[in-house]
Specification:
By secondary structure, the protein is of the alpha/beta class. It has 14 helices and 13 strands. The strands form four sheets. The protein has a seven-stranded mixed sheet, with helices on both faces. Strands 5-6 form a two-stranded antiparallel sheet.
């Protein structure tokens, strides 16, 4: 029984039920609390506290009967109330933040370990021929050159030509991506052994690797490319195989070229070609994907090849982002085959923003060109370079009424004067 003497109401008797309630420690604590609060109210009202003035039993018992014990709301349940679990909100948030920091540090460490496998080269931004005004105009865009070269398996990239040239343009403010393909036979200005000359852009890599290819694109198209990624068709095949294949929509005019050149591709990249027998969406393996990128004879020429290359690249990007467990295989088998001048920190920033990336548009350049033989060599001559650059900046960078730089305008006039084509 409680040590305090509790008054009963006039109509109450010491029944076993009442005694059990008074013996309950929870009831005694509730009664004591009630009395303390009543005294405080009485003092504030300027009244003298007299024990006879307090008859808490009935009021406390009514409260205790209604809310009393063990979660039961029935009268006279007689059970002890269950202890309440109290959440410390601040502590919970702190623990979650600590966990997120630990996971982020682990991810960064894993990422740096994986990307250390790239064939990485150091370059100087001063060698990329970026016009200062162009750099200012395009500061909101990160443009990365993705170059597929014709080096065979186990061959060095040095001296190889580019079969595919894709510029991945990322708008920094919202992550929108536009893939710009440049025809490999485009007649542009490039550096050969220290001498600037007009030639097809595919030869720029043979003259000076990734730096000179980017410089030729910057010089002729008013771009700000200072990062590049280079790989051969074996890297394409190995990447697709590591990801378990990619899905593409094979058209009827592509099957003939695929099956005609598939065996040759297999010999170049190492592997076996499996014939494709139907059109429509289907999962293709690495050798099939590399062949799909390379064909052009009866399946759309250079423009068709560039579009297929962009489709494979988009499929690989999407598959890689949804298959993080494949990264170990990619790191060991594929990344050593890929050359880049991007630092690990630059790669990390791209990956951290990748959830917000959205491929919005594919653009083929030049829009207008003359294709034919000049001095015994087939070229795609922009008609004109200046008008094609103006169109490109409107489509890719939302620069309406763009005026080409003085360098671009001079190259455009040189092309007209040397070819007579406008």
């Amino acid at each position: 029984m409680s040590r305090r003497t509790m008054d009963l109401g006039e109509d109450e008797h010491y029944s076993p039920e009442v005694i059990r309630k008074y013996e309950d420690p929870e009831y005694a604590r509730a009664a004591e609390k009630y009395e303390r609060e009543a005294r405080r109210r009485s003092r504030r009202a300027g009244k003298h506290s007299r024990k006879s003035d307090f008859r808490p039993a009935a009021d406390v018992r009514e409260h205790f009967d209604q809310y009393g014990s063990g979660g039961s709301h029935g009268r006279g349940s007689g059970k002890r109330p269950a202890a309440r679990t109290r959440w410390n909100k601040g502590k919970l948030i702190r623990n979650i933040l600590i966990l997120l920091v630990i996971l982020f540090i682990a991810f960064v460490g894993y990422f740096y370990a994986v990307t250390s496998h790239f064939d990485r080269v150091d370059t100087s931004k001063s060698n990329f021929a970026i016009d200062s005004q162009v750099a200012s105009d395009l500061k909101g865009y990160r443009n990365i050159a993705i170059l597929g070269v014709d080096a065979r398996a186990n061959e060095s990239y040095d001296g190889s030509r580019t079969d595919a040239i894709i510029i991945m343009s990322i708008k920094k403010s919202n992550g929108d991506i536009k893939l710009i393909s440049v025809m490999r036979d485009s007649y542009l200005k490039m550096n050969e052994n220290g001498v600037l000359k007009l030639d097809k852009i595919t030869h720029a890599h043979a003259y000076g690797g990734g730096v000179d290819t980017c410089a030729a694109l910057n010089r002729s198209l008013d771009l700000n490319i200072s990062e590049y990624i280079i790989f051969n068709w074996k890297a394409v095949a190995d990447t697709v195989n590591a990801l378990g294949g990619v899905t593409v929509d094979v058209k009827s005019n592509e099957i003939s070229d695929l099956n005609k050149y598939g065996k040759e591709t297999a010999e170049n990249v190492g592997g076996t070609y499996t014939r494709i027998t139907k059109t429509g969406k289907q999962t293709i393996d690495g050798v099939q994907a590399a062949t799909y990128c390379r064909i052009r004879k009866t399946s759309g020429g250079d423009t068709g090849r560039a579009n297929r290359y962009k489709k494979i690249m988009s499929a690989v990007m999407k598959k890689a982002m949804t298959s993080p467990l494949k990264m170990n295989v990619l790191a060991e088998k594929v990344l050593p085959e890929i050359r880049t001048n991007m630092t690990q920190t630059e790669m990390l920033t791209a990956v951290l923003r990748s959830p917000g990336y959205d491929i919005k548009k594919n653009i083929s350049w030049p829009k207008s060109y003359w294709g034919g033989i000049l001095n015994g060599v087939w070229y795609a001559v922009p008609t004109t370079l200046s008008s094609n650059v103006t169109w490109l900046h409107s489509k890719a960078f939302d620069q309406t009424s763009y005026t080409p730089s003085t360098t671009c305008a001079a190259i455009s006039n040189e092309i007209i004067n040397s070819t007579g084509i406008r």
